[in-house]
Amino acid sequence: MLLNGKTPDFFVGHGDEFNHEWGWKQELVVPPGNYQVIVLNADQEAWSGRVEVPANQRVVIGVPAGVRKTIPWSRGEKLSSIPRFSTGTASATVAVAKPTAEMSVSTPQINCGDSSQLKWASTDAPHVEIAPVGQVAASGDQAVQPRQTTEYQLTALGPGGTVTSSATVNVNTAIQAKLELSPGQVQYKRIGDKVVQEGSTALNWTATNASTVSIDPMKTVGSNGSQTLQIKPQKNGSGPCQRNDYLYA
Predict the structure, then answer these.
(1) Is 186 exposed, middle or buried (0-12, 13-18, 19+ CB in 10 A)?
(2) Residue 144 near residue 115 (C-beta atoms within 8 A)
(3) Predicted TM-score (pTM) above 0.85
(4) What's the rounded Cα separation, in Å, for the pair 208 and 197?
(5) Largest interatomic CA distance in the chain
(6) What tens digit of pLDDT does each residue of 63-115 get?
(7) Please, what are the domains in the chain?
(8) Rounded to an integer, what distance in angstroms lies between the CA atom of residue 249 and that of residue 190?
(9) Are the CB atoms for 223 and 206 separated by under 8 Å?
């Protein structure tokens, strides 16, 4: 018999290990929930279907007819814990545990372009996936670099059911930029053909949350930097020199 999957990871036991409750008990005990049940005869599917198991109820399935009845199971109210597998004289109990799953992020608030670390752990779940990452190992960690606020949801699926856990990385997408000259004004003095005073200035800039940064007429630059500028005006006559403008985008 397989629960919630078709691979050997979802195998819970043989039908003759839990097929009666006539004095002696042979039973499969599962947490309350909905299950996809597959009963195989050799390699052939003898019966499959969805089965709802209410709390403290015993569900009787006939093969190939399907669910025959659901009746009260008073022993369920008294159980605090149960071994995974136990046997006796003409008796057997197979208990399936509900999966567990937990996920967290190292940095819940980041700037666009930065990264955060997902960390997760699960038990009793052969199939684990994180949306939107994809299928992952039962436990692990992984760096993510979302471009917008993203909720990551961990889903752990096992024979005992499905559990989820989620964590959100909030992304600050506001673009901030600063461009300044130091000093903001320079002097250039020329007498005849001789330059007697030639000034320079430093162009400084910073930007956050920007994938590309450009300064016209310097073109593409890094998000932070500084560059010394030699100002050489083109005016040949007397009077004030022209102004030089830099456009930051």
Answers:
(1) middle
(2) yes
(3) no
(4) 37
(5) 119
(6) 888 888 999 998 888 888 888 998 888 889 999 999 999 999 999 999 888 99
(7) 2-95 (no CATH), 100-172 (2.60.40.10), 176-248 (no CATH)
(8) 34
(9) yes
